[in-house]
Write a structure and sequence with these properties.
The protein is 9% helix and 39% strand. The protein is mainly β.
Length: 443
C-alpha cells in the first residue's frame, strides 16, 4: 500500500504502515498493480469466518494464467438457519491489470498516439482492479449445502478432498461428503443463470463437544484421522473405522484453557501440536492421552494459532493475542527458546501458515487488517534496494523487519489465510467484507 501525501511530491511512493502512520483527510491510499501478479475479490451473501482450499486434479505445480481454484467456505449468517457450506469453483482467474508483463503491454499499447492514450485511460477507469478488457471475466461457480448453525472452522481432508470437517458454533463437529458437489462444479462450464438452492447433505458423523470450538485438523500422514479441540480445553481424536464411521476418543489432558488451534505433524502419524488461552503450546502423542509429551509457555497472552512446517518438520510457528509471531525449533523446544520473533502486527494474530513450496516462508493475518508474507532467509541489502528504486519500488523504512517480504491490505477484519498447495505463491484470505485471492509478484 502507498499513500499520496500532501505537499510536494518526492516522486517515490512511501510505505504506509497501518496502526503506525496517520492518514490525513486529504490523503488517499493506493497500491501499485505491479506488486501483484493477480488480485481477485469476491464475496458470498454472508461473511465467512473460515475457508479451505481444496486439492484438485489440475496438476501441480502450475503457474500459467488463467487459473482455476476450488474452495470451501462456511458462513456466519444473521440467523442459524440461513447458514450454509459453500462449495466453490473460481474459474478464469487471469492477471487483469496486474503484474509487470501486463504493465509493459499496457504501456506499449498506450504509446501509439495521444488519441489511443485517452481511450485506454478511459477504459481502465471503467474496469475493476481485477479485470482486463482483453481477458474473459472471472467466474464463481457454487453449490450451497444447508447448515443449521454458524461455521467456526472448515477443513478438507487432504487425501479425500470431498470429505469435510465442520466446527459449528452449536458445539458440534460434523463430517460431510461433498464429493458429488465437487464433481458437478468440475464439469460445469457456464455459471448457472439462476441462484442455486441449498441442498441437504446428511452428516457422515457428528460429535457433540462440551461447548463450541475452533481447533480442527486432518492428519496429512494417516488418511481420515482427525483431531478437534474446544473452548473447554478438551481435545478429541477421531480414528477412521470400517464402514465409513469414526471412533472418537475420550479427552486428551494437557491444557487448562480454551484450545484455540491444533495441527498434526507432517511426518509422524501419532503426533500433533496445539495452542491455548493458557499461553502454552503442547505436543501430544496419540499413544498417551493423560498428558502432553511437551508443554511450553509460548507467550505472555493467549496463543491463537500455530502452523507446522511441512518442508522442515522440526519448525513450528505460533501467533499470539499481542500480535507476536514466534518461530520454534522443536529440537530445542523450551520456554523462551523461540528462534525468531516478530512484533510487526499491531493487533492479535488470526492466522499463520507456512508456505508449501518455500521452507523459510510463511504468512500471517491479524486484527490490524494486514496479511503479511515473511521469508526468514532474507537479510537487508542496501545495494539491491538502491538498484530497485528506479523501478518505482516504495522506499523502505528502517522500522520494517528485513524478513517482511510483502504486505497485503485493503480488507476489514481478516480472519484466515491459506496458501494454494498447487499454485506456488497464490494466497487467499477471508474477512468481514469478503475474500481476496492474490499472488504477490515478488514471490
Amino acid at each position: 500500500m502507498s499513500v499520496d501525501a500532501a505537499g510536494p511530491s518526492t516522486g517515490v511512493p512511501q510505505v504506509w504502515r497501518p496502526g503506525i502512520d496517520p492518514l490525513g483527510e486529504d490523503e488517499e491510499l493506493d497500491y501499485d498493480p505491479t506488486a501483484y501478479d493477480c488480485l481477485h475479490k469476491f464475496a458470498l451473501e454472508w461473511p465467512c469466518l473460515s475457508f479451505d482450499i481444496i486439492r484438485d486434479d489440475l496438476g501441480a505445480p502450475r503457474s500459467t494464467f488463467p487459473h482455476t481454484v476450488f474452495m470451501l467456505a462456511g458462513t456466519q449468517a444473521a440467523s442459524a438457519r440461513q447458514n450454509y457450506l459453500a462449495v466453490l469453483k473460481l474459474a478464469e482467474l487471469g492477471q487483469g491489470r496486474h503484474g509487470k508483463k501486463q504493465s509493459a503491454k499496457k504501456e506499449g499499447a498506450n504509446s501509439d498516439d495521444d488519441e489511443s492514450d485517452d481511450e485506454s485511460d478511459d477504459e481502465s477507469m471503467e474496469g475493476s482492479d481485477d479485470e482486463d478488457s482483453k481477458e474473459p471475466p472471472a467466474k464463481m461457480h457454487h453449490r450451497l449445502v444447508q447448515q443449521s448453525c454458524g461455521i467456526n472452522r472448515v477443513r478438507s481432508c487432504p487425501q479425500q478432498p470431498g470429505l469435510v470437517a465442520l466446527w459449528g458454533d452449536n458445539g458440534s463437529v460434523r463430517l460431510l461428503d461433498v464429493a458429488a458437489q465437487l464433481s458437478q462444479l468440475a464439469a460445469e462450464v457456464e455459471v448457472a443463470s439462476k441462484a442455486a438452492s441449498k441442498t441437504q447433505v446428511n452428516p457422515l458423523q457428528t460429535h457433540a463437544h462440551a461447548t463450541e470450538g475452533f481447533a480442527v485438523d486432518w492428519s496429512r500422514v494417516k488418511a481420515g484421522r482427525l483431531a478437534s479441540g474446544d473452548c473447554r480445553k478438551h481435545i478429541h481424536v477421531w480414528e477412521p473405522q470400517e464402514g465409513g464411521r469414526w471412533q472418537v476418543s475420550s479427552p486428551y489432558n494437557g491444557h487448562s484453557g480454551s484450545v484455540e488451534d491444533l495441527q498434526w505433524s507432517p511426518s509422524e502419524e501419532s503426533v500433533f501440536a496445539s495452542c491455548s488461552t493458557d499461553k502454552s503450546i503442547c505436543i501430544f502423542d496419540t499413544r498417551e492421552r493423560s498428558k502432553a509429551m511437551l508443554q511450553v509457555a509460548a507467550a505472555d497472552c493467549d496463543v491463537n494459532v500455530l502452523s507446522w512446517n511441512a518442508l522442515v518438520g522440526y519448525m513450528l510457528a505460533s501467533g499470539a493475542d499481542d500480535g507476536g509471531l514466534r518461530v520454534w525449533d522443536l529440537r530445542s523446544f523450551r520456554e523462551g527458546g523461540f528462534v525468531s520473533q516478530f512484533n510487526f502486527h499491531r493487533s492479535h494474530i488470526t492466522s499463520v501458515e507456512w508456505s508449501p513450496y518455500e521452507s523459510s516462508m510463511l504468512a500471517t493475518t491479524g486484527g490490524d487488517n494486514q496479511a503479511l508474507v515473511w521469508d526468514l532467509a532474507l537479510e537487508r541489502d542496501p545495494e539491491e534496494e538502491a538498484a530497485l528504486a528506479p523501478e518505482g519500488n516504495a522506499s523502505l523504512q528502517e522500522a520494517l523487519p528485513s524478513q517482511l517480504l510483502f504486505v497485503h491490505a485493503g480488507q476489514s477484519d481478516i480472519k484466515e489465510l491459506h496458501w494454494h498447495s498447487q499454485i506456488p505463491g497464490m494466497l487467499a484470505t477471508t474477512a468481514a467484507d469478503g475474500f481476496n485471492l492474490f499472488r504477490p509478484s515478488n514471490l
